[in-house]
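Q: Structure tokens for this one, please.
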Amino acid sequence: MRNRCQSTSDIRRHVTTWGLPVKISSVKAVPASAQNRNFVFVKIETDEGIVGWGEATSGPLAVATMVDEFGRVITGKDPMEIEKHWQTLYHYFHVRGGVVQMSAISGIEIALWDIKGQALGAPVYELLGGKVRDRIWTYGRWDGPTVEKSVQNAMNHIEKGLTALKGDPFEHRGIFIDHASEELALEKLRAVREAVGPEIELFVEVHGRLCPSDAIRVGNRMEEYRPFFFEEPVPPQNLDALERVADRINIPISTGERLLTKYDFADLLPRHAVDLIQPDIMYAGGILETKKIAAMAEAHYVGIQPHNCYGPFSTLAALHLDTCTPNFLIQEGGIHPWMPDAVIGDFPVQTDGYFGIPPGPGLGCAMDEKWLAANPWDENAKPWVHRQGNNPSRQDIDWS
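A: Here is the predicted structure, written as tokens:
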């Protein structure tokens, strides 16, 4: 396995050279593509040779422009002052927030943590309180366009050692599910439960496509198959609707992948409408902001599972957070076979349903710039959207 280019002792010498702090010399977005999907990575260089990597993938290429614009704001500054830079960038515009701005801030923040960890010779999780676990539970998929494909997908993932699976069995259009689609979704879940047995945990993903009354009916019908959680049953904009569903079904509810920063979660958590939150580190605000969100959830007895359907640095950031977060439950994503090939360093891989503790110092890996050059942004790649249609969001993704 290839190692990062500088030793920890070299980096420590850089930080203290002549008693002067290291400075940010450049911030650059690096768009790339893999498996017909596009990604935005963030590279931050310093005047002493420390290079940090982050990720800001959320869909639009506009995020790359925002990363470069924000980068000019912090160039020449001390990369160790992460909270200060976060506050500067978050308040930079009078109209703030939104997925483009937050993705850019998050990608920069992740890269700054990578720099800080390298400078101090420690994994990021050590800087956030130290580990509270020695392995990180993860899951595969059980969905497919047909009942048979759903069962096959589930069994394929179990053969790889996974003990939990998530699936979106819905194929309908709009928020009012038709009878045939509802019956097919129930039949997929029933068949998968029968095939995998009672010990495998099954999660049901809805992608916010049901109206409250349909979510209540479908959730109650699915209860006999013991879903571990019912994810985003209604569109995420209306928390009153989510609370209505939570009050009328008996299976745990999760949501949060489309909420931004602690301010959105401050509205959600006091309602006691969810058992699990799923903030995405790349547009919730980065590693420390998500750690703050997790602490808010802990005070409400709510677990956390970072949303992660993107690239290797989204995965690494999530794994460092998982390692040091007491109310962490399970981690999404990160099991794509191309990811270890795209980085330099010991990228964690899934074994028997768990990731190992991520490496260090910093995030523990760097993007392979030869891989980036060979895999540029693809204008014809599929957008990061949950498409309508038959098993809209997962049937075309290789989840191996």
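A few notes: The domain at 8-123 is CATH 3.30.390.10 (Enolase-like; domain 1). The CA atoms of residues 140 and 165 lie 5 Å apart.
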